[in-house]
């Protein structure tokens, strides 16, 4: 693994603490590995689709050998939870591998009880047994965080414990701060892991690796050579029966404020230092703080036809299933370079791509009409492509565009994001987890365009969203990935 994602500890930082509002936070130089894994919401959808497969993968790699305690209110027994885990692995984990699943069963415990009852947490305390440094994963709605964290404290289950918090981290800046204050009543910042599974994707991490492990990029990775940057996160399907959830979220809250802002940060950040462990997160915060708050005139929201007929969706809903926007980063490196983001459901294909378009060479007529670019496809597969011009066959000195494939990796080659992040959290490695000051800075960027600040435009399924989005990129020649 590239050293930026596995940084050495600096012994000079021992004993240093910092608040979440400070840009430079230092992790414990010698973190203790968690000796129990507790997950609330054990019978829920997230556990079924993501957590059980990640736990089996960690066991297969020899990275998990501690009690695993599920907590939920479902009137289940441990046998019921074991059956649920097996079904999860068959459907989402590539199958229940015999040895790994046998190990998972031996580690699995279950507490069935109401989160509002102290008896539930007293039973959890008993199940923890000799564990001194548990980690608690709140795979539950944020509305329950206060209840659960308070009971964890009162039952002594929070002592020397870490906590993993699943996004969304609030609905706006104010609620993000309130949510943070709620968790901080029990857990210090050094023990809070805000999980955004997008940061656990190897394809996203490759943005950092490709940028800083290759000398040839640095001279051109700036306003002098880059014309614009475009990020597209497209899904060809709709809300898939999750209309009620999407009514509360929308594309801006669901993927822009978190996932795609992280991508912008990785593309635009300065090189992290190797002298301390939190340097990567420091650089991300600097980028977010340099992004201008979004203006309504630089944002287009859309909603696919038929969304209002989805179960759980209001008949007059103005929630966006598509958003396109233009943003600017007021830094020495990126001043004047537009960053475009486009994300939505019901689009022409399913893919996440980043295209960095370079300015035309001085002899523009020689390279006409194609320009140079670097394209990162982050899903469904990892591809890194260089767009270049070569001579067109024949007598004339004419060019033709070509694409040079630098890398192509399939999904099977990669470590799953939840496997990576859960393993890191248990080790106490913060590198790929969101920090509170970054969360707040990201909310400050999108705050001006929340709550129907711009009109909603209808678009047909299978297209690239409303036509109004094309106007955002007309000055740079249109959207690159379409």
Distance between the termini: 33 Å
| Estimated helix fraction | 25-40%
Identify the overall geometry.
Answer: globular
How would you classify the helix and strand content by structural class? Answer: alpha/beta
Describe this structure in words.
With 482 residues, the protein is α/β, with parallel strands linked by helices. It has helices at residues 45-60, 78-92, 98-107, 118-128, 145-154, 173-184, 202-212, 243-248, 250-268, 279-290, 364-367, 417-427, 436-446; strands at residues 36-40, 68-72, 108-112, 134-138, 162-166, 192-195, 226-235, 299-304, 322-328, 338-345, 351-358, 373-379, 382-391, 399-409, 456-459. A nine-stranded mixed β-sheet has the order 14-13-12-11-7-10-9-8-15, with helices on one face. A six-stranded parallel β-sheet has the order 3-2-1-4-5-6, sandwiched between helices. Strand 4 (134-138), helix 5 and strand 5 form a beta-alpha-beta unit. Helix 1 (45-60) packs across helix 12 (417-427), helix 9 (250-268) crosses helix 10 (279-290) and helix 9 crosses helix 13 (436-446). The protein is globular and about 80 Å long. Residues 1-28 have low confidence and may be disordered.
What is shown here, in short?
By secondary structure, this protein is of the alpha/beta class. The chain is built from 13 helices and 15 strands.
Tags for this model:
six-stranded parallel β-sheet; 15 strands; 482 residues; alpha/beta; disordered N terminus
Which helices and strands, and how do they pair?
Layout: E1 36-40, H1 45-60, E2 68-72, H2 78-92, H3 98-107, E3 108-112, H4 118-128, E4 134-138, H5 145-154, E5 162-166, H6 173-184, E6 192-195, H7 202-212, E7 226-235, H8 243-248, H9 250-268, H10 279-290, E8 299-304, E9 322-328, E10 338-345, E11 351-358, H11 364-367, E12 373-379, E13 382-391, E14 399-409, H12 417-427, H13 436-446, E15 456-459
Parallel strand pairs: 1-2, 1-4, 2-3, 4-5, 5-6, 7-10, 8-15
Antiparallel strand pairs: 7-11, 8-9, 9-10, 11-12, 12-13, 13-14
């Amino acid at each position: 693994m590239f050293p930026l994602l596995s940084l050495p500890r600096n012994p000079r930082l021992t004993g240093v603490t910092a608040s979440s509002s400070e840009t430079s936070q230092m992790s414990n130089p010698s973190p203790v590995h968690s000796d129990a894994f507790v997950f609330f919401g054990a019978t829920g959808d997230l556990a079924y689709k993501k957590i059980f497969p990640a736990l089996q993968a960690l066991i297969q790699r020899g990275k998990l050998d501690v009690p695993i305690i599920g907590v939920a209110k479902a009137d289940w027994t441990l046998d019921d939870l074991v059956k649920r885990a097996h079904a999860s692995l068959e459907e989402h984990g590539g199958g229940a591998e015999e040895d790994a699943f046998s190990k998972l069963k031996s580690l699995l415990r279950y507490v069935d009880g109401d989160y509002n009852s102290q008896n539930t947490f007293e039973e959890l305390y008993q199940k923890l047994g000799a564990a001194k440094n548990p980690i608690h994963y709140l795979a539950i709605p944020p509305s329950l965080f206060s209840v659960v964290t308070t009971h964890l404290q009162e039952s002594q289950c929070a002592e020397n414990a870490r906590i993993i918090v699943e996004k969304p981290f609030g609905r706006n800046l104010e609620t993000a701060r309130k949510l943070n204050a709620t968790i901080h009543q029990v857990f210090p910042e050094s023990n809070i892991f805000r999980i955004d599974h997008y940061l656990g994707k190897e394809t996203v991490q490759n943005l950092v690796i490709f940028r800083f492990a290759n000398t040839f990029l640095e001279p051109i990775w700036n306003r002098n050579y880059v014309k614009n940057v475009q990020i597209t996160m497209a899904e060809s399907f709709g809300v898939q029966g999750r209309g009620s959830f999407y009514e509360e979220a929308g594309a801006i809250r669901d993927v822009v404020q978190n996932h795609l802002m992280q991508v912008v940060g990785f593309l635009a950040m300065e090189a992290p230092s190797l002298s301390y462990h939190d340097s990567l997160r420091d650089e991300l915060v600097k980028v977010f703080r340099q992004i201008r708050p979004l203006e309504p005139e630089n944002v287009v929201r859309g909603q696919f036809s038929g969304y209002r007929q989805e179960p759980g969706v209001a008949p007059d809903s103005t929630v966006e299933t598509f958003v396109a926007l233009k943003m600017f980063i007021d830094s020495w490196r990126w001043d004047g370079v537009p960053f475009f983001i486009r994300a939505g459901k019901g689009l022409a294909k399913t893919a996440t791509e980043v295209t960095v378009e370079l300015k035309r060479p001085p002899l523009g007529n020689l390279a006409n009409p194609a320009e140079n670019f670097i394209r990162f496809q982050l899903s469904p597969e990892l591809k890194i492509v260089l767009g270049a011009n070569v001579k067109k066959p024949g007598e004339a000195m004419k060019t033709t565009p070509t694409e040079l494939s630098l890398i192509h990796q399939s999904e099977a080659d990669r470590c799953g994001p939840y496997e990576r992040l859960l393993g890191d959290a248990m080790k106490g490695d913060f590198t790929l987890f969101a920090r509170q000051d970054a969360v707040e800075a990201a909310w400050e960027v999108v705050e001006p365009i929340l709550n129907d600040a711009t009109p909603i435009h209808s678009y047909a399924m299978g297209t690239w969203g409303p036509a109004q989005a094309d106007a955002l990129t007309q000055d740079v020649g249109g959207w690159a990935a379409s």
